[in-house]
Amino acid sequence: MDEVKVVIAHSERATLRVGDVFLKVDSDPARLDREVEVMALVPVPAPRVLWHKPSVLAISAVPGTVLGRIGTPSTSSPAAWAAAGAVVRELHDAPAPPWPGGGGQGIDELAAKLDEECERLVRDGLLPANLVARNRRVAAAALRPWTPVFTHGDLHITHVFADGDEITGIIDWSEGGQGDALRDLATLTLGHPEHLGDVVAGYGGDVDLDVVRAWWSLRSLLVVRWLAEHGFDPFSPRGEADVLRARM
């Protein structure tokens, strides 16, 4: 009999694996509804929806292993990282859904959210004031007009699977929709700056690396407190806190 493995669990959602089936349980059924809609539109490898009921989604396992993890060096080849960039480009070039994806706030709204989070990080003593201030200045470069494209919205490195040099699938599409292409590239390479060149080579075209790096600061500032409050460790080596320190 297959064991039940907890992949991830916190107060908002949980993912379980039973054999080759993943069960996603979400406190917000609409989020799972949206994920099913997005996966029906994506032009890149993604899990197959097996069944879907309110608050629960069953999907097939994706072959291969994750491209890497935050906190440890990636063992995936430069070619695999480049292949990930090419797959992301294919997604960004596809017709986008009519709804905003993760981080779909307007520039002013995102800036206000960032300022509020920076204030809380300092007030709660999670990060030093000078570290927060420096990264807030770096993050400003990401707060510019962009042309919306079809984005994953939460393209964390553990959401991308590879087999050798081939990308076999991308998972967790609940944040998919219209968004900033460079946010996806930044999220994918967060904590792995040594592979940014590989990803950009596969992605092709002009990529503003300063904006990608600005998104590293912006995303890290926004998630440090949430991660700490939900049982994750943003202070692990190569984690979000280290990403912020690198900007100093």
TrEMBL record:
Q: Extract the GO molecular function terms from the UniProt entry.
A: transferase activity
Q: Keywords in UniProt for this one?
A: Transferase
Q: Does the keyword Transferase apply?
A: yes
Domain Aminoglycoside phosphotransferase: residue ranges: 19-212
Q: What is the protein named?
A: Aminoglycoside phosphotransferase family protein
